[in-house]
């Protein structure tokens, strides 16, 4: 047996000034085909990806068009599928050769490089190793311990879900948690877009964006804020290219100049590839300081007021404002009172540049506002979103064709999980209906968010942890403080496809349960099964895998959830786990019964081309807010940062690389930033490096500048010169997560503020 571990050289590539996509994208896919060595059937799998009757990509949540391209997948989508379908296997033999303590010292990359998990495993404290077990033994052992904990305190177990699990699995998992006795259902949304779910709902009444794919055929301006399309959702570049071809203007605000929003060469277009043609994506690209989105949006709103004054009216849609909004007088007074000098100081941008974009907005009839985690992961992230909505409301750009607010979500079903009940907030779930359907009284007290779950692990109030996918221990803030606390858990259950860091942080009992990937055949009592998911634009898609599973011992996620439930919970004649696992269509019937307004004719429409739309009241200008209208917000501050950098500190922005998705590291070539590195780097602009008395290539330590009695440091980071605003440093997630305090999060959603952490640099 040979372990797959690699040594990674530190080298920089030449400055990257090529378009996103192009030959670099094709070469990257080819490299990963060679690395993972999938069988010849992988090409057929990729050709079915994101198409009706095929399987939906496990990477990003970007929507799937009704008329897909012959190759409807992108570079990172291909990497995700190749990563899933690797020939490498992490077998019981591997675990027999390595203690868990040893594996804890391995890198994330090397752990996952061992390949697909093949057998259910049980942690043996006597040998400090995982040992092979049977599925029945696993379910019996897990059930016995969870019953024991439940008898003492059902609220002391957390049921975490990553954003990949299907709607069917998520519905059953949420039911398991509530039958167990709690709403402890944090998911990966807590760490990325929960600010959207809370902040957007507060001002529009809807927790999700209002756009659909066809809106991009009709808009004449798109504004991007804090979103890196080229790496995080590359298929989005195709509708952007089409929009540019018909004359749509695109403006980007981002501290980092990301190649995907600069130029794009379509790797699916032979003419562009052979002729070397490319599409300029952003007409204006403004690198504002991190956390200054509130200020730049205030500047755009201010320019709308000025333009309306100069034109004698007609710029602001006052009919829409009067009929559909509240809070206008306070908002207008606040924006008019803000000075341009203050806006320039906070943003680091010139008034003329912001005003120019404001003019473009005033002259555009239909505008879409795009954003990502650059807005959500701040202490005042909810204010960022409210300010964005302010700008769009001023000209009636929500609730009509070709216009709207459109967050770009990350993981493939992270939005859908919330739709079908994965939520710690009981008021967001139709619990009375669920009680009626299943004959029990579900808990009504609020469950734990990610932040609260970590606090419970630290203080010992959380006794058990069940993880439906993901790498929770690596994705969380303050991870350096939490690693040691996992050993005190009474049980840690991990449902997974590959080995990762969370599996090495064992409790007194630990179980590792291997599951199918989405492209694999899921064969149950009634035959092959399909699952479903929801994309960023609220479209529901069916997905059916056909590949041979990685091992005969691998099981589907619904099977595993049902197995744990049957072993843990008291029998209930209305809860038919075996029947549901035998036929997932019956789970979809339950989802339809629970959410009839969203899932009408669910099974009938499962494979509708382009998916079916679950609906959105705000898109219809039905505002389910406290006032019954869309709400204007008067900004109490112009910075989204919790702590503005001082003379001796900087603002850290954590980012993913081009060879990464969430915590999964595919490789070490951050091609679109011109870097090939072992990821232990910190990027700064050259002037800042000189002012700090540093030199490029020097190793430094970053320390958190928040004074709360804790010391948080990450050392061994090599300085790299990079195009960034002053007072800004860039480093990789999750390597620098230890610098983010657990309590440094959005005030409303508790989303960690990964995009605005105050740090100091020590040589």
Q: Compute the average pLDDT.
A: 94
How many strand segments? Answer: 34
Spatially, the strands of the biggest sheet line up as 6-5-18-17-16-7
In whole angstroms, the N-to-C terminal distance is 42 Å
Q: Ranges with pLDDT <50 over ≥5 residues?
A: 7-14
Give a quick account of the main beta sheet: strands, pairing sense, barrel closure: 6 strands, mixed
| Morphology | globular
Structural class: alpha/beta
What is the rounded Rg?
25 Å
* Strand fraction: 15-25%
List the defining traits of the structure above.
4Fe-4S, oxidoreductase, six-stranded mixed beta sheet, 763 residues, MopB_CT_YdeP, single chain, alpha/beta, 28 helices
Architecture overview:
Its cofactor is [4Fe-4S] cluster; Mo-bis(molybdopterin guanine dinucleotide). Keywords: 4Fe-4S, Iron, Iron-sulfur, Metal-binding, Molybdenum, Oxidoreductase. This is Molybdopterin-dependent oxidoreductase alpha subunit. It comes from Limimaricola variabilis. This protein has 28 helices and 34 strands. The protein is α/β, with parallel strands linked by helices. A hairpin with a 4-residue loop joins strand 28 and strand 29. The two termini are about 40 Å apart. The relative contact order is 0.17.
Structure in a nutshell:
The chain is of the alpha/beta class and 763 residues long. The chain contains 28 helices and 34 strands. The longest helix has 19 residues, at 293-311.
Task: Describe the SSE topology.
Elements lengths: L10 E2 L7 E2 H15 L5 H7 L26 H10 L4 E2 L1 H6 L2 H4 L4 H5 L3 E2 L3 E4 L4 E4 L2 H18 L4 E5 L5 H14 L13 H11 L16 E5 L3 H4 L4 H9 L3 E5 L9 E3 L4 H6 L3 E2 L3 E3 L6 H19 L6 H7 E2 L1 H10 L2 H8 L3 H12 L4 E5 L1 H4 L4 H14 L9 E4 L6 H6 L11 H8 L11 H10 L4 E5 L3 H4 L3 H4 L8 E6 L13 E5 L8 E2 L2 E2 L2 E4 L4 E5 L13 H12 L8 H6 L1 H11 L17 E2 L16 E2 L18 E6 L4 E2 L2 E2 L3 E2 L4 E2 L4 E4 L1 H6 L7 E6 L8 E9 L6 E5 L24 E6 L1
Parallel strand pairs: 2-10, 3-4, 7-16, 8-9, 8-14, 9-12, 13-24, 14-15, 16-17, 17-18, 25-33, 30-32
Antiparallel strand pairs: 1-29, 5-6, 5-18, 10-11, 19-20, 21-22, 22-23, 25-34, 26-27, 28-29, 31-32, 31-34
Helix pairs in contact: 1-3, 7-25, 8-25, 8-27, 9-19, 13-16, 13-17, 13-19
């Amino acid at each position: 047996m040979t372990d797959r571990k690699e040594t990674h050289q530190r080298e920089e590539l030449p400055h990257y000034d090529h378009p996103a996509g192009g030959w670099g994208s094709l070469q990257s896919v080819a490299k990963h085909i060679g690395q993972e060595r999938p069988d010849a059937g992988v090409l057929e799998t990729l050709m079915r990806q994101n198409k009706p009757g095929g399987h939906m990509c496990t990477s990003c949540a970007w929507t799937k068009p009704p008329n897909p391209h012959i190759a409807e997948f992108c570079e990172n989508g291909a990497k995700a599928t190749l990563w899933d379908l690797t020939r490498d296997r992490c077998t019981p033999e591997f675990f027999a050769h390595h203690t868990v303590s040893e594996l804890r010292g391995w890198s994330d990359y090397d752990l996952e490089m061992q390949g697909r998990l093949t057998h259910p495993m049980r942690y043996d404290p006597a040998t400090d190793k995982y040992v092979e077990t049977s599925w029945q033994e696993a379910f019996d052992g897990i059930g016995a311990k969870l019953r024991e904990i439940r008898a003492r305190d059902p609220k002391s177990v957390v049921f975490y879900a990553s954003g990949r699990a299907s709607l069917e699995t998520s519905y059953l998992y949420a039911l398991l948690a509530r039958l167990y006795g709690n709403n402890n259902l944090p998911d990966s949304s807590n760490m990325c877009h929960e600010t959207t779910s809370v902040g957007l709902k507060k001002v529009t009444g809807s927790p999700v964006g209002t756009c659909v794919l066809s809106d991009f055929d009709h808009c004449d301006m798109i504004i991007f804020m804090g979103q890196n399309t080229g790496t995080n959702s590359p298929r989005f570049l195709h509708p952007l290219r089409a929009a540019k071809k018909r004359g749509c203007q695109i403006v980007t605000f981002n501290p980092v100049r990301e190649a995907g929003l600069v130029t794009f060469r379509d790797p699916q277009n032979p003419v562009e590839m052979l002729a070397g043609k490319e599409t300029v994506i952003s007409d204006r690209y403004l690198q504002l300081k991190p956390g200054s989105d509130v200020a730049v949006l205030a500047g755009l709103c201010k320019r709308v007021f000025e333009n309306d004054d100069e034109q004698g009216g007609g710029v602001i849609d006052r009919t829409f404002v009067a009929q559909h909004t509240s809070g206008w007088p306070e908002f207008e007074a606040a924006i008019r009172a803000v000075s341009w000098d203050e806006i320039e100081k906070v943003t680091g941008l010139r008034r003329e540049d912001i005003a120019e974009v404001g003019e473009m907005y005033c002259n555009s009839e239909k505008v879409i506002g795009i954003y990502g985690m650059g807005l959500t992961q701040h202490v005042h992230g909810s204010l960022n979103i409210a300010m964005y909505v302010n700008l769009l409301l001023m000209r009636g750009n929500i609730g009509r064709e070709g216009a709207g607010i459109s967050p770009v979500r990350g993981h493939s079903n992270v939005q859908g999980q919330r739709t079908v009940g994965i939520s710690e907030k009981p008021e967001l779930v139709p619990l009375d209906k669920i009680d009626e359907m299943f004959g029990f009284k579900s808990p009504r007290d609020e469950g734990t968010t990610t932040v609260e779950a970590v606090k419970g692990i630290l203080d010992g109030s959380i006794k058990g942890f069940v993880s439906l996918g993901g790498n929770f221990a690596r994705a969380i803030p303050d991870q350096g403080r939490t690693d040691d606390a996992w050993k005190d858990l009474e049980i840690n259950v991990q449902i997974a496809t590959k080995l990762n860091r969370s599996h090495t942080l064992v409790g007194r009992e630990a179980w590792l349960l291997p599951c199918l990937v989405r492209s694999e055949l899921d064969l149950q009592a009634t035959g092959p099964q399909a699952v479903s998911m929801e994309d960023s634009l609220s479209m529901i898609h069916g997905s059916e895998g056909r590949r041979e599973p990685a091992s005969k011992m691998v099981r589907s996620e619904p099977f595993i959830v049902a197995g744990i439930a049957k072993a843990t919970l008291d029998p209930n004649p209305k809860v038919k786990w075996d029947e549901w696992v035998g036929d997932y269509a019956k789970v979809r019937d339950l989802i339809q019964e629970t959410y009839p307004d969203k899932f009408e004719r669910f099974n009938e429409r499962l494979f509708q081309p382009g998916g079916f739309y679950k609906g959105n009241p705000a898109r219809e200008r039905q505002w389910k807010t406290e006032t019954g209208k869309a709400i204007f917000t008067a900004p109490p501050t112009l910075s989204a940062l919790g702590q503005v950098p001082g003379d001796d500190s900087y603002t850290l922005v954590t980012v993913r690389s081009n060879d990464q998705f969430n915590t999964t590291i595919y490789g070490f070539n951050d091609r679109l930033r011109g870097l090939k590195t072992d990821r232990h780097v910190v990027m700064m602009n050259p002037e800042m490096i000189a002012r700090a008395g540093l030199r490029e290539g020097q190793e430094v330590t970053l320390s958190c500048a928040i004074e709360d009695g804790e010391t948080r440091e990450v050392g061994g980071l090599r300085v790299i010169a990079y195009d960034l605003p002053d007072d800004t440093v860039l480093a990789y997630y999750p390597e620098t997560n230890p610098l983010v305090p657990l309590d440094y999060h959005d005030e409303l959603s508790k989303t960690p503020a990964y995009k605005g952490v105050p740090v100091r640099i020590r040589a």
